[in-house]
Queue: 2 jobs
Job 1
Amino acid sequence: MNPDSGLTASLGAFAARPQDFPAAALQVAAAGVCDAIGTMFAGRKDAAFATLRKVLLPEGLAASSGEASVLLGPVRTRALDAAFLNGVATHALAMDDVAAGCHPSALLVPALLAEAETLGRSGRDLLQAYVVGYEVLAELASREPDALHGAGWHPSCMLGPPAVAAAVARLRGLDAQQCTAAIAAAASMTGGLVANFGTQTKAIQVARASSAGLLAARLAAEGLTASSDALERDPGLLKAISPQRRARLDGVFDPGELRIVTQGLSIKKYPVCYSTHRVVDAAADVARQPGFSAEGVQGVQVDIGSMQAWMARHHEVRTPFEAKYSVEFAAASGLVARDASFAQLSDDFIHAPLVQRLIAATTLRLHEEKSADDPVFSPWDRVVVTMKDGRVFDSGEVAYALGHARRPLDAQARRRKFLQCAEAGGFENGEVLLNKLENLQDLPDVRQLST
């Protein structure tokens, strides 16, 4: 690598460098791929997926001879469209994983899966490319000291396309110049707003980021040029979207110890906004305490970060979409069901009199202090419940949600989540596919996943 090159070129050189990543990195990547495919099946019945499918695959145009599969099924289409469709399904239920303030697997897996099917690449090739994409995403996120959400940007959509482009470029075996061009071109394909959280467009904008990264890599492979300092130029992408214009622009990328190993992935347990997961866990902890009964609750106080509450901004909940982005619903669901899963995102549960009463009885105490791990979050969340008889139940401070990289789900819990997602999406061969995914490193051709 040229020590005088900037960030964009050094990321391109990293993506092009032939290297085998360590087993620990591939293991995390494999967990991300498996989780993303599970959430993809769960989202196949979502209205956003159905809408996009009508546009991209109108009646009579669905084929069995396209480049890549839709939902690993018999319908095939262009890889760009497959990545778009599968990306929407993956993110539709807000149940895909989190790292570096983004949704790495919802970004990387749809594009890599589509391109790996097109090229006949192996499972190991896909995982190696995933690691590249994760590292690029984590590096870009690390250069911004302020929360992009605060400026209205959806970080996954602002930082995701360059990361996806790097991953696909690695999968295609592009050289350093082409990889740099792919990353730089993808910087011009970013875009996504927090304003669309709680709507179907949130899944669309994440999926569009995945497809855009794939497009940028393909264009670079055909000779497209782009500025070799598109990320770090003043102003380039990082400076342009930085809320306080404090993004770090200097210095090249030095991979050092891989962040995918040191930071890992947070596998989400619940299909609701991640900013509310600690609240669900805290409320569920209260519900398990001896003598607690949800029927006897007088009032609920939730301590939570102001940015988290801003993203989960629905105080009155009437629909599953609103429930996904509601702190009050998260508390009520945890207190009543000790969970916030598919069963709780139903009209019957949402409109149950007890649930609605608890939502109305919940007040928020907002905190401005930022977590050292993620500026979107406060250092901890907490649920304190006052009963009608005067007793008080306190969850204590919850710093990490179940499934967080520092509080991970075990292998059995991840398997259970995958199978529940497959069942929720009406996919009947969950066990068979899961067995293939658990041996993805040894799969000679990714297309075998869809057979």
Note: Residues 201-221 form the longest helix (21 residues).
Job 2
Amino acid sequence: MKYMKRPMILLVPYPAQGHVTPLLKLASCLVTQGFMPVMITPEFIHRQIAPRVDAKDGILCMSIPDGVDEDLPRDFFTIEMTMENTMPVYLERLIRKLDEDGRVVCMVVDLLASWAIKVADHCGVPAAGFWPAMLATYGLISAIPELIRTGLISETGIPEEQRKICFLPCQPELSTEDLPWLIGTFTAKRARFEFWTRTFARAKTLPWILVNSFPEECSDGKLQNQLIYSPGDGPRLLQIGPLIRHAAIRTPSLWEEDFNCLDWLEQQKPCTVVYISFGSWVSPIGEPRVRDLALALEASGRPFIWVLRPNWREGLPVGYLERVSKQGKVVSWAPQMELLQHEAVGCYLTHCGWNSTLEAIQCQKRLLCYPVAGDQFVNCAYIVNVWQIGVRIHGFGQRDLEEGMRKVMEDSEMNKRLSKLNERIMGEEAGLRVMTNITTFTDNLKKHVVN
């Protein structure tokens, strides 16, 4: 009960593992700054994380209904609908209950849950934004009006032509097909584009946005200066990442982790195992690609651990699991940090999600990149072309995979680049910079409490 007198900061993530994870780590940092963080999630997320958050961590987990039947899938558009139409009234009720004694001093809102900004404003609670990805991706999406003005994209977000281009100064080249909202059918792309334009229109009203990334993402340091706004132009951006180095909490997984794979790793030689995971949120890569990857892994002869959810396994060849039982392990979910820290893992075949990228850098693992959707193409461009700590593959044919693994494993300079990048973003100097930025934010909140 010693936390009950602390001023409260409410945290509202977008309801997915990759968004809950960094906000829980921010919550852990806020505890050390004298606040009581309250993590607010839909009931289906709350049931999975609340039992795994220890009371001594000082974080309170609370839930609100999302109005979705338990048996229905929660895809992007279902979640968007419930965030806009159902969850606001429940969040407002909870805020008013928690703030009866005036102890709610701020609400930190994941920008992908921008609906909560309106609720905070209606309740008179100061709000700050949280961006869980690279600053470069924030800059790209916030530049939508300029992309339209210059004719790179239409008013509905569709590229006017297919080509490679630097969308912003100091960014590596991206294809016009790699924009974060270009996922699915034409109708889906337009709807996602509307989601982003609405999100950033709301974000402009915020005084602060906390970014889970590090200064000087671009190797020459120019990117940061190009993207951070002056106070008169919009929110003040503070880079507070990567949070994985500073949080005391072990982030709970939304799924049960298979720790048996760690015992299997103990039997493998150093730097020989390929770890494969495409994250927690992306849709299946499709049965044909699952089959191609399965056969390519088998033909490579290399030991592997492959995270493949049960509902994604329909593409596996008949009898595959039995055939590769000695060569590799196929698991439903894995303890990723423990796995990446293991000396047997030589490279990581990844979708280039931002949390996974940061964990790979922390553990200094080489990356084999296959981006699937959203910000993953931006992350991949930095991994491959700027930091040069990975290799991109464009398919899962036997030749594609073998050539990619050969390039990533035989690059004699990659370990040096990984070590240098690790020190730059995880070292002592970087850590002091992160805590200085977090303290700048919390000192501002403490002044609000005093006033």
Note: Residues 83 and 115 are 6 Å apart (CA to CA).
